[in-house]
Amino acid sequence: MSRSEKFIAVSLVVGVIVLLLIPFTFIIIPAGHVGVLYRLLRHGTETDFVYHEGLNIKWPFDRIYTYEVRTKTLDESVHALARDGLSVQVEISVLYRPVPDNAGKLHQEVGYDYVDRVVRPISLGAVRDIIGKCDPHDLYRINVEELEGRILEKMHGSPAAKGLIFFERVVVRDLDLPTTVNDSINRKLTEEQNAQAYKFLIAQAQDEAERKRIEAIGIQTFYSIVANSLTPQLLTWRGIEATVQLSNSSNSKIVVVGGGKDQLPLILGSDIAKQPDLPAPKVIDPQSHPLPQWRDLPKLFPKAGDAGAAASESSAGTAPGDETNVSRAANPGAKQR
């Protein structure tokens, strides 16, 4: 063979060899993955670095293992026992992903089936450990975010996954307690709400009693002041005025008046004008007999720490002669009787 023919033959052989070695020399790492290099002729798995996305080169006799480092979800249904031994069924979703820079160590120590070897056992153990420290009543009232945080913290503290797998979040999808426990807790919460409602009704009744008491003092003071002006002649005149207004109304058709000269209009068979003459009550001067200060009145139902409670206690310890002054302060109209 001539020199040119030898060159062509050698080039063809080299080209064929290169074509055959390309799949073993050049490797493409897909998006969301990293490559772990296994050196056949040296120390084995490379843990100091990993291949990232894109085109990478290696020796034909070495091998690259790819690991997906995207966030994954593991759904589990956990059967756990509470602190008192009752069975609790918890459904969770665990969001996790391998740590990219430690993918070589993960491949060397765990392998591809790290989900069954590490993630699932850690998740189940963390849920059972947290549930086992709680009572069913605590689980019924616990904040879901708090429960998820405690489970996630327990998973982060596991030495088996530290530095290899990162747990992003734990979602508690459902938490089922035994039917008897659910019924008893619901009854207890219902009774607590009923007790709170009764306390509110009692406080409302006490406030209503205080309001009526103050209203009665005002009414009594009002009638004590205007009692001297309510004469039979005034009542008769007011009755005539009411009759005239009724007759002028466009809606009135019949005006009914009394049957005697001493009877007021509109009051059939009334004996208002025939009442015996009684001495008129004394006129009360509003300046000399003002209304009491409402905040200074002793409470009918004093509460702990209330200023009225101290006033009632001090009045309870006064002499018998001082009780009259206290009653007059609460009822100023009693002084004129």
TrEMBL record:
Alphabetically list the UniProt keywords: Membrane, Transmembrane, Transmembrane helix
What Gene3D superfamilies does the record tag this protein with?
Band 7 domain
Does the record carry RNA-binding as a key word? Answer: no
Task: Give its localization.
Answer: Membrane
Q: Which part of the chain is the Band domain?
A: 24-189
Query: Record's SUPFAM superfamilies?
Result: Band 7/SPFH domain
Pfam families in UniProt: Band_7
Which residue ranges traverse the bilayer? 7-29
Composition skew (Low complexity), residue ranges: 304-319
The record's listing under InterPro entries reads: Band_7, Band_7/SPFH_dom_sf, Prohibitin
Q: How does it sit in the membrane?
A: Single-pass membrane protein
Q: Disordered: where is this region?
A: 278-337
Do the record's keywords include Transmembrane helix? yes
Matches recorded under PANTHER family: PROHIBITIN, PROHIBITIN-2
The name under which this protein is listed is: Prohibitin family protein
